[in-house]
Amino acid sequence: MEHPLPHRPHPSHRAGTPLRPRRRTVLGAGLTAGLGAAGLAGCGAGSGGKESIVVAIVSNPQMQDAISLIDHFTADHPDIDVRFVSLPENEARAKITASVASGGGEFDVVMISNYETPLWAPNGWLTDLEPYIAQTDGYQPDDFVPTIKDALTVDGSMYSVPFYGESAFLVYRQDLFDSAGLEMPPHPSWDDLRGFASTLHDPDAGMSGIALRGLAGWGENLAPMCTAINTFGGSWFDTDWAPRLDSEEVHDAVAMYVDTLRTYGQPGAATSGFGECLTHFSQGNAAMWFDASSMVSGVENPASSTVVGKTGYALGPTNLTEYAGWLYSWALAIPQTSQKKDAAWEFIAWMTHPDYFQLVGNEISWEALPPGSRLSTYEIPEYAELSEHYAGPTLDSMENSTQENSMTVEVPYDGLQNVVIPEFQDLGTRVGQQFSAAIAGQKSVDEALEQSQGFAESVARTYGWEG
C-alpha cells in the first residue's frame, strides 16, 4: 500500500499572472538554438524585441521531435524565442535539479517527472499551473491518463503537465519466438524470460537473448531493477525506515538481474541505458527487451527500426506479484523563479496540447506520437491502428502500476522504480553505480549490496531510524 511522504507544510503559491491574449493555433516550423546552459543563463529579451525563454529537456527521441517542430510554435508566437538546453537523461536531471533547488533562474521551462513534482511543489519551487490550464482553449486536462495526472497533482493543483507517460512492459521478437516454437505468456515471469533468453541467445550471430539497462543512475538501471526487487518481495526500507537492501529478497532479485545480463544480455551491458537498449533491439540484435513502454515510438518507427512488424508485447516480468511495472511521466513545469511565466506556459501548452499529437503524426509519423499521456491519443484512427498490439499492455500496465499490485510488503514511501524522498537522487545514483559494477564483473553482488546497505543506512537516520 502506498503511504504519503511526510512533507513540510504546503506553502501558499502565487497564482500565475494572467495570460496575455494570444492567437492559439497549435500547428506551425521555426528555428531553435540548442545551446549550453552556461551560454544561456541570464538571457533576457531575444533578438528583435522577442522574449527569450530557455527550455531544459531530456534528449530522448520524442523531445528531439519537439525541437524539430518548433517553427510551428514560433509561426504562431513570433514574439517568443525558444532556446533549448537538451541533455542526456542523467546530465539533464542533475543540471535541472541544481538550478531549481538553488533558485538559479537559468530555465523558464524544465522537464521533470512524477518524482520531482510532489517533492518540489511543497517547497515552493514550482508554479501552480491550474490558472494557466483553465485559460487555455481546448487543453482538456481531464484527457490526461488518470494515474499520470494524479501523480503530477499536489493539493489539487497540477504543478507539471505530462508530455508523455509510461509504465514498463516487454517487447519481444515474435518472428524468433515463432521460429523456435516459443510462446510468450501475457503475464511472463522472470523464470520465463530467462528460459526464453537461454534458447534465443546467440552472440556469435550478434543476437543477445535479452536487453536490459545496466547504466548506473537512479533513473537508468534502477528503474527496471527496482521492479525486480519489488516483485521478489524486497523493498528499500521497511515501515520503520530500516534499510532492507541486505535482505534475502533484495539479494535474490539483484543476483537474478545481474546474472541474466551477464549470461544473456547485450554487449557493454554495464554502460547501456535506455537509448543503447533501444538501438540494440530496434537494430535486430536482441530477442527481448524489458523497459519503459515509451519504447514503442522507436521500436515501431520504420525510419529507424529494422524490427517493425516482427514484434510482440507482454506485461513486465513478475515473481511473487501480479504486476511489475512502473509509473513515470516526463512532464513540463515552470520554475517559480522564471520571470517569463506567460511565455513559458504558451510553449508548454503547445507541446502538451491535444493538437500537438496531430502535428507529430502529420509532420513526422504516427509511430512517433508521445505515448501514455492522453487517453485520446489511442483514439486517433491512424495511431489506434498502429498501436493495436501494444495499446492494451501499455494502458493495462499504467492502470495497475501501484504498490498494491507490484509489491508484497508495506513501505513508508511512494514510488515503484524509485523512492520518492529528496535523498534518492544521490542514494539511487550511488546504489546504481554499485549494481552497474556488479554487472560489469568488477565486484560481487554481495559486495555491491553491502556497500549499498551502508548508503541507505545514512539516509534512514534522517527519517528516525536509529540502527
Q: Over the alpha carbons, how many angstroms does the gyration radius reach? A: 22 Å
CATH architecture of the largest domain: 3-Layer(aba) Sandwich
The fold-level CATH name of the largest domain is D-Maltodextrin-Binding Protein, domain 2
User: Count the strands?
Assistant: 11
How would the global form be characterised?
globular
| Name of the top-level CATH class of the largest domain | Alpha Beta
Low-confidence runs (pLDDT<50, min 5 residues)? 1-46
Which percent bin holds the helix content? 25-40%
Which strand order do you get reading across the main beta sheet? 1-3-2-4-11-7
Polypeptide structure, described:
Mean pLDDT is 89; it is low at 1-46. The chain is built from 20 helices and eleven strands. The longest helix has 17 residues, at 248-264. The chain has helices at 37-40, 61-68, 70-76, 89-102, 116-120, 130-134, 146-151, 174-180, 190-200, 222-231, 248-264, 274-282, 296-299, 341-352, 354-363, 381-386, 391-399, 403-406, 424-439, 445-460; strands at residues 33-34, 51-58, 80-87, 109-112, 153-154, 157-158, 161-166, 168-173, 288-292, 311-315, 328-333. The protein starts with 32 loop residues before the first strand and ends in a 7-residue tail after the last helix. It has two domains: 33-164 and 330-386, Periplasmic binding protein-like II (D-Maltodextrin-Binding Protein, domain 2, 3-Layer(aba) Sandwich); 168-325 and 396-463, Periplasmic binding protein-like II (D-Maltodextrin-Binding Protein, domain 2, 3-Layer(aba) Sandwich). The chain has 467 residues and is an alpha/beta fold.
